[in-house]
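Quick start: what a row looks like.
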Amino acid sequence: MRGKTAEDQRLLELLDPVAEVAGYEIVRLRLMGGEHARRLQIMAERPSDGDMNVEDCARLSRAISEIMDAADPVAGEYTLEVSSPGVDRPLTRLQDFATFEGHEARLELDRMAEGRKRFKGLLAGVEDDSVAIDLEGEEHTALIPFTWVIDAKLVLTDQLMKRGADIRAARLQSEQQQPTSE
């Protein structure tokens, strides 16, 4: 789910180590558009706290640009966009479902399960290689194999907004407590 196409997967293989060395993890990569006006969209975050500010985006963009210029893996012209996954982020890795346990999410599957492909509910963590979700109107927690999930995203709720605000406040407090070098 981090990359949809074979070309996305090849780019992830090339760029994951670059992001890691720079101190980031790629959450999602998409190469979109036709032959001429293509866009390489990369969502990333710091693994330590899941944050990604403007300076982080610029730093990762420079690191990726160097490798992309040298390796030239994309035919033709493209625009590189590096961003944060945002508050109502996509869930692309199994660990994301554990990290955001207790938050509301929407999932889409690549096949029918219990007569449908789309599900909405509260994330209940992971079990082995399955996503646990408490579905709306259901008594039992559903276990959905992660390999069946083709799209998943957090639902923007007050609880999720508070989580994001708390993370930003903690980061700002940490930055203010760090000694400045003169």
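That is the whole record. The chain has two domains: 6-83, 94-158. Helices lie at 6-22, 54-71, 94-99, 158-177.
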